[in-house]
Amino acid sequence: MEKSAEKTKKKIDISPRAKEMPASPIRKTEPYAIEAMKRGIMVYGLNVGQPDIETPHVFFDAVRNFPNKVVAYQRSQGDSDYLAALVGYYKGCGYNVTEKDIIVTTGGSEAIIFAMQAVASVGDEIIVFEPFYTNYNGYAVMCGVKLVPVTSKAEDGYHLPPKADILAKITSRTRAILVCTPNNPTGTVLKRSEMKMLAEIALEKNLFLISDEVYREFVYEGEHTGVLEFPEIADRAILLDSVSKRYSLCGARIGCVVSKNADVIGVCIRFGQARLCSPTLEQYGTTALTKLPKSYFDEIHAEYKRRRDVTVDALQKMDGVLCRKPSGAFYIMAKLPIRDTDEFAQWMLTDFQMHKETVRVAPGAGFYATPGLGKDEIRLAYVLEVPRLKRAMEVLEAGIKEYRGKHA
Amino acid sequence: MEKSAEKTKKKIDISPRAKEMPASPIRKTEPYAIEAMKRGIMVYGLNVGQPDIETPHVFFDAVRNFPNKVVAYQRSQGDSDYLAALVGYYKGCGYNVTEKDIIVTTGGSEAIIFAMQAVASVGDEIIVFEPFYTNYNGYAVMCGVKLVPVTSKAEDGYHLPPKADILAKITSRTRAILVCTPNNPTGTVLKRSEMKMLAEIALEKNLFLISDEVYREFVYEGEHTGVLEFPEIADRAILLDSVSKRYSLCGARIGCVVSKNADVIGVCIRFGQARLCSPTLEQYGTTALTKLPKSYFDEIHAEYKRRRDVTVDALQKMDGVLCRKPSGAFYIMAKLPIRDTDEFAQWMLTDFQMHKETVRVAPGAGFYATPGLGKDEIRLAYVLEVPRLKRAMEVLEAGIKEYRGKHA
């Protein structure tokens, strides 16, 4: 290329949509964590919901015995055997769904994206309860959908705000309410009366009710209420699911959308045809997992309950730290005596260590849509064994203390 | 629910965006194919680019020896070992890229979606050459992007139209040109001079040049020219890739985006963080594949060339069928003496059989954006062994003849 052309060459820029795309608060500290590890520091990763529980060996056994010589495209709707297995799994949950009500997705992530696009056009609005799973923000940017937050408060245990507060946010562009129970990031398990209220609003305002229930099995007090338990909204209920947490299988990228609304599943299949299929080998392996006995979850359940108790006890003893004991999932939102947890989370990786150890946390602001909220909060995922969790809490406490001393 | 409420209940509808979402012409005949198979009919699947070549055993060996006990999330950018292996693979292609120029995606599909969203906001335009890979239509609907087609003609061997025709379609909303070489669905391998022309336009009009090169290894005459071979557009060149065809690994869902534009890779990583990661186990297995010797492709290459020749020879002998011998990929667009190939493709599955056999083809209209074009064309994927391909061509010929007799 000639010099003159080089001089006149315009700078090319990514799209405004792309610039709007947020980095995940759960993952954006990765470069600092990698650098810390390079310096020989042990990083307790409480930022991400990556369980350390072993993936059940039946999954590996199945994958090892994959019978085909070609890893071919699977059906866009999902492996027929896996769809049949899912019908059985949901039957065990008390849900009467058939294969035509389900599409297998590439993780719960794709399930959310498909559901958003199915119900909302560009510029449409979806009601969410903040704090919410931070990646909803990213999916909304990708889909051109506006998330309208209704704030749930720590002092109410992050339970839903009164009906009037929700109704006040509904406009002519509102297409759906998106709820998550058991909740990520708060761990709150919604009561039947709360889900019932949402079902009523969905009927009154003619909205879809999209429910992210990937933590269904992780309830320590009370019980899970699913969106499919309200037959009066069968035409507008959309269940989002994933095996990532259920079977400690985050890297498999296998989720699903379930709905009795044939148009919803129909368009999700068309979205699915465009991306061809979800991973073939992983669907094969996951099919074997659906035959695990319920007792598998009993053990997991007891283990996470111990982890929760250890984490909450430690947090509640820390000076200036506020948190409540959540009833489900494996997350805790905690309020720290720190003004900017974004800065703190980075500092823990770049500047802090205690005997060559530190803790990686997810700063809270990214879990809110309302500017300014959550800046003094963090989300912790209690996904390590009890002794390591206990140690991580000691290191975190020391970190908070040192940070406050330096940033008073 | 009370009866009165039931009566007043409004019908809930999917979004206008969702209604716009097209079914894939490659996959939409699936229900008819399944029904045909249930009736005991053997269906030759020439509709989809699903190679019958065995996935190399090194992939299965690696997956069987996956060393971890948890199938955990992988990094959003991709497995570090796999990124390093990709750098080596591209070095072999003559491309000097580093790990920071690459993000691993969940198939080539996600690579296209990420690239579209990175360069275009809702309502922006991307130039494509029709016929084009039909799923671009679906991704465009999902991303709210408008595809602006420039028609390439069968009589020109589907090579690019003159520069003036392309310039004429560029508006203030145009953000990129999306090209595919070797081409799906035409098999055309673009000449260096054609890619050079696109690079010039990208510079003159300040556009991105997005190049889908997943069939790089499948060139039977001439040679492949990649978008990364033009240093003057390094800031605006985006390579889309996938291992699906290269290693007969369609079901693994492993692709990537490669660009020297750090903002492009940066936002793709943010998109990637939202969807967490691409499949862990499959990335591990695919890393092993990048060590395959070049001789692996030599054999594959010779096999596909034989298949192409058999298919083209058979098509050219059929009464009223027009097609040219393409130089790459494993697809052929053929013009049939039939007015509506959508109807024909369905009829082949619902009404036709020859000795209990039939052929599944992809109707052509879905590969065009201009209404009315491609209605008398089909796309064939020559992905079966030679004897089966020969037989499939006999069955197709008989089908065309019978259909014409009935729909004259």
How would you describe the overall organization of this protein?
The structure is a homodimer of 408-residue chains. Chain A is α/β, with parallel strands linked by helices and 408 residues long. The first copy, chain A, has 2 domains: 15-54 and 295-406, Aspartate Aminotransferase, domain 1, CATH 3.90.1150; 57-289, Aspartate Aminotransferase, domain 2. Chain A has 14 helices and 12 strands. Chain A has a 7-stranded mixed beta sheet, with helices on both faces. In chain A, strands 9-12-11 form a 3-stranded antiparallel beta sheet. In chain A, helix 4 (57-64) crosses helix 11 (280-289), helix 5 runs parallel beside helix 11 (280-289) and helix 6 packs across helix 7. The mean pLDDT of chain A is 94. Chains A and B meet through helix 2, helix 4, helix 6, helix 7 and helix 10 of A and helix 2, helix 4, helix 6, helix 7 and helix 10 of B.
Label this structure with key terms.
homodimer; 12 strands; Aspartate Aminotransferase, domain 1; Aspartate Aminotransferase, domain 2; seven-stranded mixed sheet; 14 helices; alpha/beta
Question: How does the SSE layout of this entry go?
Answer:
Two copies of one chain form a homodimer.
Chain A: H1 3-8, H2 16-20, H3 30-38, E1 42-45, H4 57-64, H5 80-92, E2 102-105, H6 107-119, E3 125-130, H7 135-143, E4 146-151, H8 163-167, E5 174-180, H9 192-204, E6 208-212, E7 237-242, E8 255-258, H10 262-274, H11 280-289, H12 295-317, E9 331-335, H13 341-350, E10 357-360, E11 362-363, E12 377-381, H14 386-406
Helix pairs in contact in A: 4-11, 5-11, 6-7, 6-10, 12-14
